[in-house]
Amino acid sequence: MKLKLTIFHKLLITLLLVSLVPLGSLWYLDQSNARHDLNANISQNLVSTMNTIATGINAWDDGNVRALRQAARLSDVVSMKPERQNPVLAALGTTYEWSYLLFTVAPDGSNIGRNDGGAPTFYGDRSYFKDVVGGKEFGRQVVIGKSTGKPALILAAPVRNDNRDLVGVIAMAMNLGDVSQTVVSNRIGETGRAILLDSSNKVIAHGNAAKVKVALQDFSNHPALKVAGIMEQPAQYTDEGKEMVGYARKLPQGWTLLIEQEYDEAYAPLVRLQKDARNLIAVAVLLVIGVAFFLGKQLTRPILQLTVIAEELSKGKLDVSIPQTGRSDEIGSLAGAIERLGISLQMAMDRLRKKS
Questions:
Q1: Cα–Cα dist 150/212, whole Å
Q2: CA angle at 191 for the pair 186 and 194, rounded to the nearest 5°
């Protein structure tokens, strides 16, 4: 069946093309520009928050490293004698109130001095001790503190004599309250949060406190850590069924800092723009249909009337009234032509009658 397009259909299609093509083009360009600008803004927010948190963590860590390095050089500490070390360790513990234990370890792993007066403990199996004995300038290990039940950092440094021979290890166990506060207090919107992981991807601090429990959770399988290039620029991924946008960075301590935010919140302005654009296009379509219907009726009604009149003339009914002759447009011209045709037919019929 052949599709038949009336004047109304053709007018509607024309008006839709004339109005929606430029409107759709403007919407596409505006959306592209808005997405580009929003991507830049989101990246800036993530990077800025990352820099703020990383600066705070690094400053806190550098202060502790310097303190431990200076303590390792004290003659009382180098002596590796508990009666000389303990008063120094106690004084350091008082000065650095966020630390809850300072202690020294002999190269064989045995505990020499400590500031809490507790019984000596064997530390030869601890990773931070092995790192220092193995030649590293510092050893770090994040554990769950026995007294606090929260993540704590043990920082260790070598103790060397005047000949630069390793005579022991000095270590400081510290609460990570300041670090956690830095991580938790820096947020982006309602869903943006920071996550700090140790060198083995265990959670040190999390913007969502419910994620940090009595044991260090392993975040090695966190989807953000599997996204290629996320440490160069922000990237998108799905976590627990939610679309996220995040940015990660390796810190000098070997830790990983991740900043993430839910996609829906980050791109809310773009979603609103798309919704407004869809509403505008819907209104435009309804308006075009209304205009096309009105104009179509204005065009087709007189044409249909003239068609009926032409059919009556063709059947010999010459005394018809043609109401559109007063119009000054093309329809008026057509009505005038049909009227003259009727007059011509009437004159021809009169001549035929006279001859007969």
A1: 8
A2: 40
Domains belonging to the chain, first-starting first, are: 7-11+270-355 (1.10.8.500), 38-60+179-264 (3.30.450.20), 73-177 (3.30.450.20)
The pTM (predicted TM-score) of the whole model is 0.67
Residue whose C-alpha is closest to residue 246's, from 321, 185, 191, 315: 191
Grouping H, G, I as helix, E, B as strand and the rest as coil, residue 32 is helix
CA distance 264 to 252: 32
Cα 86 to its chain centre, rounded Å, is 51
Question: Which among 173, 168, 153 is positioned nearest to 109, based on CA atoms?
Answer: 168
> Which pLDDT tens digits describe the chain residue by residue (356 residues)?
556 666 667 767 777 777 777 767 766 666 666 667 767 888 888 888 889 999 999 998 999 999 999 999 999 999 999 999 999 999 999 998 888 899 999 999 999 999 998 899 999 999 999 999 999 999 999 887 776 677 888 999 999 999 999 999 999 998 887 788 888 888 888 888 899 998 889 888 887 766 655 566 888 899 999 999 998 888 899 988 899 999 999 999 899 999 998 888 887 766 676 677 777 777 777 777 777 777 767 777 777 777 777 787 777 776 777 777 777 777 777 777 877 877 777 777 777 777 76
Who contacts 93 (Cβ-Cβ below 8 Å, separation ≥6)? 99, 100, 101, 102, 115, 116
| Closest of 221, 209, 149, 140 to residue 180, by C-alpha | 209
Closest CA to 234 of 252, 260, 257: 260
- What's the Cα-to-Cα distance from 143 to each of 125, 204, 221, rounded to whole Å? 14, 9, 20
Q: Could you count the other beta carbons within 10 Å of the beta carbon of residue 15? A: 19
Picking from 227, 141, 210, 136, the residue whose alpha carbon sits closest to that of residue 176 is 141
Q: Where are the alpha helices (DSSP H) in 167-252?
A: 177-185
CA distance 165 to 169: 12
Q: Which amino acid is at 71?
A: A
